[in-house]
Design a protein that fits this description.
2 copies of one chain form a homodimer.
Chain A lengths: L12 H28 L3 H12 L5 H10 L6 H24 L3 E2 L2 E2 L1 H26 L4 H23 L8 H25 L9 H29 L2 H4 L5 H5 L4 H9 L1 H5 L2 H4 L3 H13 L2 H21 L5 H15 L4
Antiparallel strand pairs in A: 1-2
Helix pairs in contact in A: 1-2, 1-3, 1-4, 1-16, 2-5, 3-4, 3-7, 4-5, 4-6, 4-7, 6-7, 7-8, 8-15, 8-16, 11-15, 15-16
């Protein structure tokens, strides 16, 4: 259930950039530069940690989605919004790494490993603060509120995940709620912000665009998380960059395990806390989960969310290129490493 | 260098409430209610942790200062601003407790102790998010920017403190800079926000009020931190609620130690990391610091900041009651447990 341990890999990134054209590429580059400026502009000590965090990169999936939602008429302020969303995402990753004592993320040493718990916690707090500063600079209170609500949801989701750890009674509905809070809320916010920072169209459909693009973001966010959790069980480790079954070792209860437990009595009776303590044991339980068919069904569930995401787009009269790009992203979140 | 481990005890609170009158008492009660609402309104899991954090109380010194700066004409939105400042303060405390593995704060079990590192980190993040949401609701971008800048400063100060831990070469200037970032920035913000959420006076002096009240806040913030660091050395433990010398055990280099090292060669050569590992050793080094006269000189330094704070008030044409109340706060931060 770690949002990006397995990477945000979107195979279709190049196709997307081709559809998005030079403006999308330029906006992404502007966001990247701004992220670096923010990292470097705050004292040598903090700068070093923040730069290493930012530099570790990732695919900038949330900024990408935001710019695609803003479309051709993306305003300059969309860059600030994209930076803000990415900063919040990074803040949560830095804090997650502290909690998980993770030495490596995306092949790079984490702030936690390089600088310790204290520096990493502060760096996360700093990235949070800067996120709000970026949005304030746009002069749009509804944008700040959107990010603030999303941040609150992230914290609630994180807390829910830790509270449900090792539990034998997490229902599929509760799992989905956790995905909505922990992952989808920020995609939802990215899409809403994209709509907010797009020139209002002459027919005045902006509130509808904010609503439906938000729904699109929420759905792909859930699909993204489900797929992430499937990949944790299925691997392959050489693509995801981590052992199979890290969620099992953490006690994080994800959809594949929930569904598998409904079908396999032995899995249902298994106490993860005592029975799964080594990567080898985790891999063996992963195999057992796969045998129940739970991975295919989880993937099916994710595809259902992708379909709903596309249906939300159908409510809007979007330019064809924009719709195609957004659909490509929606497909992409469930086709990672496929 | 922990901002509130030794409490925000202000002996003059009752006098202040008397000067501030029923309106101040009412605003403080409104802020308290709002803090509880925020704590309780977000799911049973998070609510429980947040409520325990909020309930641990403290003297609400930052909201108090904010309301005093807003004065008689404090607007309703001053309550939201006060709540926001207190939420940021609490968020940093919750994160500090995780880093310090602190089981108790203000006589109450910490979120860290009650619910673990993960829940405490999330609770801190949640309180941060809610802080910004409170300010956004006021519809004043400059207010959000003020808080965002202060939060950034806090994170920078925290990072600086962790980076300087155990160092033998922290200068008094560097120590003061750390106080400005880690502590004074939020007092500065509280005072600026108070000025912002006060009805503009007919003579249009508001920008001056924001500036000078901010300066007032920054000065009392530095004085507050110096005194906190003096109390860590002087005790008495039964008043501060913690052993003497916890900063020494943490490797936190504070003004009393810096000044004492200039005067006592043995202290200068002491490696805290190896020589101070038990509360008894810490108490003994505290005695040695006291013998150099460094505590009196640190207190003198704090009094200098209090004088500067009062001088900043002198730049403004404040109602007599308001000035008297603010001066009482300024005196109060260096008279704790005197």
């Amino acid at each position: 259930m770690s949002v990006t341990r397995s990477g945000d890999g979107l195979a279709q990134l190049e196709s997307l950039l081709a559809i998005g054209g030079p403006k999308l590429t330029r906006r992404l580059a502007q966001a990247e530069r701004r992220l670096c400026e923010i990292a470097e502009s705050h004292g040598p000590g903090l700068g070093r940690h923040a730069v290493s965090t930012l530099g570790a990169g990732g695919k900038r999936l949330r900024p990408l989605v935001l710019f695609l939602c803003a479309g051709e008429s993306a305003m300059r302020d969309a860059v600030g919004a994209a930076v803000a969303v990415e900063l919040v995402h990074m803040a949560t990753l830095v804090h997650d790494d502290v909690l998980d004592r993770a030495p490596i993320r995306r092949g790079q040493t984490t702030v936690f490993k390089a600088a310790g718990r204290g520096a990493a916690t502060s760096t996360g707090d700093y990235l949070f603060s800067r996120a709000f500063a970026e949005l304030v600079a746009t002069g749009r209170p509804e944008a700040v509120r959107t990010l603030s609500d999303a941040s609150t949801a992230l914290a609630r989701g994180e807390l829910m995940q830790r509270g449900d750890a090792w539990s034998a009674s997490v229902s599929p509905d509760r799992y989905i709620l956790r995905c909505e809070l922990k992952t989808a809320a920020l995609f939802d916010a990215a899409c809403r912000l994209g709509a907010l920072f797009s020139e209002p169209s002459s027919n005045g459909t902006m509130p509808a665009a904010v609503h439906h693009l938000g729904a699109f973001g929420a759905r792909i966010g859930v699909a993204f998380q489900i797929l992430d959790d499937v990949l944790d069980v299925s691997g392959p480790a050489e693509r995801t960059g981590k052992h199979r079954g890290t969620d099992l070792l953490d006690g994080t209860i994800t959809l594949p395990l929930i569904l598998a437990r409904e079908r396999d009595g032995d899995l249902r009776d298994l106490d993860l806390r005592t029975a799964v303590t080594t990567p080898e044991q985790a891999a063996s339980v992963c195999d057992r989960i796969a045998l129940t068919g739970a991975l295919a069904d989880s993937r099916e569930e994710a595809l259902g969310y992708v379909a709903e995401a596309k249906a939300a787009l159908g409510e809007l009269d979007l330019p064809e290129r924009q719709r195609r790009a957004l659909e490509l992203v929606a497909d992409g979140v469930v086709e990672r490493y496929a």
